[in-house]
User: What shape does this take?
Amino acid sequence: MAIVFLSAMLQPLTGGVSQVRVVGRTIRTVINNLEERFPGIKERLLQDGDLRPDVAVAIDGETALDGLAEPVGEDSEVHFIPPISGG
Amino acid sequence: MAEATAAYKVIGTRPIRPDGADKVTGRAVYGGDMRLTGMLHGKVLRSPHAHARIKSINTAKAEALPGVKAVITVKDFPIAEDRMANLGEMAVNVKLLSNNVMAADKALYKGHPVAAVAATSAHIAEEALGLIEVEYEVLPPALHVLDAMKETAPLLHESMTTTELGQKTEKHSNIASHLRFVLGDPAQGFRDADIVIEREFETATVHQGYIEPHNATALWNEDGHLYIWTSTQGAFVVQRQAAEILGLPVSQVSVTPCEIGGGFGGKISVYLEPVAAVLSRKAGRPVKIIMSRIEEFEATGPTPASHIKVKMGAKKDGSIVAAEASLMYEAGAFPGSPVGAGCMCIFSPYAIPNMQVDGYDVVVNKPKTAAYRAPGATNAAFASETVVDELAEKLGLDPLEIRRINGAKEGDRRVDGPTFPRIGYMETVHAALEHEHYATPLNGPNRGRGVASGFWFNVGFQSSVVINVNADGTVALVEGSTDIGGTRASIAMQAAETLGIPYEDVRPTVVGTDGIGFTDVTGGSRTTFATGYAAHEASLDVLRQMKERLARRWDGEMEKEFEGQAEREMARITPDDVTYTNGVFKCAKDAGKTMTFKEIAAQMARMGGPITGRATSQPRGVGGAFATHIVDVEVDPDTGKVTILRYTAIQDVGRAIHPSYAEGQVQGGVVQGIGWALNEEFVYNDNGNMVNSSFLDYRMPTTLDLPMIDTVLVEVPNPGHPYGVRGVGEVPIVPPVAAVANAIYKATGKRMTQAPMSPGYVLSKLLE
Amino acid sequence: MPKVHVQTRINGEDIDFLCESRQSLLEVLRDDLGLTGTKEGCSNGNCGACSVLLDGVLVDSCLVLAVETAGKEVATIEGLASPSKLHPLQQKFLEHAALQCGICTPGFIMAAKALLVKNPTPTEHEVRYWLAGNLCRCTGYDKIVRAVLDAATVMEKA
Amino acid sequence: MQAFDYVAAQTVDEAVSLLAAKGAQARVLAGGTDLIVQLREGRRRLDLVVDVKKIPEVSTLSYDSNNGLQLGAAVPCYKIYGDATIARAYPGLMDAFTLVGGTQIQGRASVGGNLCNSSPAADTTPTLIAHRATCVIAGPTGRREIPVEQFCTGPGRNVLGNGEFLVALRFPAPPQNFGAHYLRFIPRNEMDIAVVGVGSSVVLGADRATVTAARISLGAVAPTPLLVDEAAEALIGKPISDQTIAQAAAAAQAAARPISDMRGTIEQRRHLTGVLTRRTLQGAIARARGERVNHA
Assistant: This one.
C-alpha cells in the first residue's frame, strides 16, 4: 500500500491526518480510495475528471507526468504539491 | 580550446556555436528585424493611471489621421472565458491573461493597454495614440504588498475571493491565495532550540532586463490563418496563449520563433502578439509592434517585490532544529506570483526536522509579475541565508561549517514533503571550503567576505527532436527550443556524442510550431537537459534504423547454400548482431562485414531510403540544482557604496556539456543577482507611477561595476539524464543577494534586511 | 512633412536616402536601408546596442538624427568582416563564448573596435571603462572582456 | 516622435535669425544626447531644430597658456580630454568631462549642451564654475559674456533670451599653484546621474601651505548649481588643515537645499555634499601642489 502524504493544504479535509496508507496501483485509484475516507478531497484535487492545473503529484520524489494514469508502486510515497515552472 | 573529458569525444569540449557567425555579423534575424510586404507599425495606448475604471474610449480622431489603418480596443477581442487553460509549462486563467493583454473595464496598473493603433509608420501610430480619448474614473491604488493585504485596501478585483489553504472562501480581498507547508512539529522544534533568530526582510520589484524589447509581427490572412513571428522563449506557448485569447483552434495559429535577445523568464507570457494579430485582421495587412524601453518597464512582467519573515532555531552543536517562514509576494495586477516556489525553496538547502512555511499571493496595482530565473527563490534565499549566517555567527561557527553540518543530502525531506534524489549540495559546500578564494586573507579596511547557498528545482517538461541523415554522412537536427544562450551547440553536441560523429557534422535548426512536435519553453533550466535528452533518443533511433538495414543487407548477402532451414536460422543476421563503435558498424557473426556511418548515409537510397530519427522527451529525473557562492566586498564608509572585489560561484551542474556556456549561465545569473543586491528596483510614486523606467535610472550592472566572475563547475552526474546533465541556468541567481548582504555585514557590522542594498540604504544603516 | 535627401557613406559605399528630420540614424539604418545588424535596445542612449562609428567616432545611432549624417562616414557591424573572414573581434567573441543571446553583440563589437583603434593594448580596466556604455544582461561581461583583450593581443601581433 | 524641421546653420548670425524667428518653438541641436531623448519621449515639442555643429566657432577649441581656453559650445567631450595639453592645464574639467555618460555619449555630448540643458544635476557645470568659466552668448542684439554661475536660473531654465544661443565657454589661464577637482556620487561607476556633484578649485600661496583663492560649487542639491562663497571663505587666507577643510565642507552642507527623489534623499544628499566637498578640496590642493590625482 502506498503512503499518501496529506499536506497542510489538505488537512482541513482530513481532520488533521497527515499520512495514510492507501491501496491503489494508479493515482486515479489512490484518489478514489482517499475520497472514501476523506469526502471532498477528490473535488480538491480534480477538475473535469483530471488533476487540477494547480496540483502536481510527486511519487517517490519525482513529478508524475501521466496524470491520473500514473502508476503507483507498493510502498511508494505520494505527495500532492503545487506545480513548478521556471524562468 | 577543445579539451574532451576522458569518457567523451564531444561532450566537455568548447566548440563554436552553429549560429555564431550570424550573430557576430549582425545577420541573425531577431523579432525586431522582421519585415513583410505591406507591413504596418503598431503602437499601444496605455493607462496613465495605476488604478482606474475605463468609462469610455473614443477612437474617431485617431482613425481619421492619414496613415492610420486600424484602431482597436477590448471590443475587438473575443470575450475570454473565466477558466484555467494548460499552456504546456504553465496553466493560466484565460480571462485574466486576456485582460492583461488589453484592459477590459478597469486599468489595473500604469501601462495597462487600453487601445492600439496600426499605421504606415511608427511615428504616425504614435501620433494617433495621442488622438484617442479615454475617460477614466481614477481609483486609489494598492501599491505595497502589506498595504494591499489590509482589510481597508482598495480591491483590484471586486469579484476575487481568497483561496485559503486550497479552499475557495467568500472573503473578498487582494490576497488571492494563502499556501502552507508543514513538516514535523515546528513548535516543539523551537522549544528544543538553544538559540532562535527571527528577522523580517523586504525586497523590491526587479526586472529581467533583457536588452531586446518585446516584439511581435502578425499576419491574419484572408483565409483565416494567423501567422506570428516573435522573440519568445517558446513558440508553442505563444501559439496556445494566442489561440486561447483570440478564440482560435491552435491549428489556425502558426508561430515562428525569431532569434531572441534574452528572456530570463520574461518572454513566456504574451503581451503584443494578440494585439498585433487583431490589428492585422482589422487592417488586412501584417503588423509589427516593438515595445519601447519605458513600456518594457511599465507593462511587462517583472519579478515580485516581497515581504518575508524568517525564524530559525538551532542547538549549540550547530544543528538547525526548527524553521518558520512567512512569504508575502506581490503578484502584480493579476494573481500568480511565484510564492509557491519561494515557499518550497526557502529552506531546501537544509535538512531541518521541523518546518512551517506560509505563502501569500497578493495582487497590487503594478504590472502582472512574470517568471525570472528561479522565480521566487532569490527573494526567499535572501531572507533565509541571511538568518543562517547570523545563526552561524551566534554559534561561533564558520558560515560554511553550519552548512556542512545541516546541508541537504539524498533522502532528506523538503518542506513540501518529497525527498531529494542524488544531489550535489554538499559537494558545492566542500568545494567552497577548499577553494583558494576562501583561504585567501581579506586585507584592508571596510572589507568583508560573505557566503550563501541556493536551491532550484529545475524542470523537465516536453521536447521534440528530429534528426535527418544527409547523404554525406552529416545530419540535420530539427528542434523546437529557441536558442537564447548556445543551446543549438549543447544539443548538437549530445547528438554528435551519441551518433559517434563530429560536432561539426550536426547542423541544428530551430523551427516553429508547424515544423516540429510540441516543445516547451527555453526556460526552467530545461533545454540542454530535456531537449538534449530528446536529441540523444533521436540519435539512438537513427542508429537503430541503420542497424536494421545493415542486418537486412548483410543477411541477404549470404551466398552460402544451407543444409536446411535450421542452419539458415542459425546463420541469420539480426540487428542484435550489429555493433556500432567509433563510427563503424560491425557484424558479430562475420568479422569481415563492416560499414561506416558515412557509407550507410551514402547508400541510404539503396538501403531502404531516407533515414530520419525522431524522439520526444518528457524526462522525470530533473535532479535539483544547488550553488554556493563566495563574495568579497568593500563598503565606502562615507557614502555607503558597495564595491564587489571578488566573486566565486560554485555549482553542481551534473555534467557540463559545453563548459563555456555552462560558465556563462552561472556568470550571467550571478551578475543579475548582484544587480538585484545593489541597485535594481522599481521606484513608484504615491500614484503608482514608476519614476525610473529607463536603463539610466533602473541601474543594471555595467562592465565597470564588476570584477571577473570565477566559476567552479562541480559535476555530480544526474542519474535522470543519459549524460548526467542538470539544468544550470537558474540557480546561479539565488545566492548572490544573500551573499552580498552577508559580506556587507562582515564589512560594516550592519545586517541588511532590504534589497536592493543601495548606497542610500547602506549609508542610512551606517549613520544609525 | 517633406523628406530630406541625404548623401552619406555607409561601410565604404556611397548611399543616398530620403528621410524625415525626426528619424534617427538607427531607424533609417534598420527600417529604410535594411541594415538590421545594428540593434535597438532602449532608444535613449543607455544601452549601446545601436553603437556605430560616425566619422570614426563611437556613437549611439539612436541619438543621431539621420539628417545629421549628410557628408559623413558611417560604419556598422555589417561592414566589419572581410569576405570569408571574420574580424578578429568577431572571431574572439565566438571562441570565448562572449555572446549568449547576441542582441548586444554588434554594439559591443563596434565599441571594442573603436577602443582598439584608439588604444591597441588596453588593460582590463580600460576595456571595462570604455565598454560601460554597452549593456549585456546574459554574460556578466566576464567573457566579453576576455574576448576583447584576446583580440587586442592577436591584432597587435598581426 | 513629433515632426519638426531641421536646419544646419553655417554661421552664428544664421543660427540667431533662425532661432529668433521661431522663438520657443526652436531649439539648438549640438550633441543631441538630451534634446533627441526629450523629443522622442514627448517631453519637448518643437517646430525647428537648429544644428550648430557646422559653425566653426561653435565646434572648435583653442588654448594658449596666456589667454586660456576657448571651448566651442558644441565641442564633444571626447575631443577635449583627447587633447593632452588641455587635460594637463585643466584637470578639474577632465574629471567631469570624462564621466559624462559612457563612451558613446562622450562622442556626441558637448559641455555647452550640458550647460544649456540646465539640469540641476549636470556633471560639468559645477566644475565650470570652479574654473571661473564665462559664457559667450550670441543674440539678435549682438554678443554678451556672463559668468557661468549666473547662467542657470532653474531646472531646465537659463538666461538665454529669444534668439540667443551659447557660442562658447571661456576659461582663464590657470594661475600658479592652481588646482581643481570634480567628484560626483553615483550608485554605479558609469552611466548614471549625479546624486551630488562637487567641483572645487584652489590657488595656493607660494608656500603652497595657505589658500589664497578658492571656489566650491555644488550640483544636484538645489534648483541650479550653486557657487558657495561661505565654503571658500572658510579656506581663503588660512593655512591648509583638516579643520579648515572640514569648515568648508560644513559651509557647503549648510548651503545645500536638496530635495528627496528617486536618486537620493535630502539627508543622503546633505551628507554626501560634505563628503565630496572634503574629497574634492583634498584633490584640488594635491593638484595645486603638483601631485597626481587620477580622474574619477
Observations:
- Chain A is about 25% helix and 25% strand.
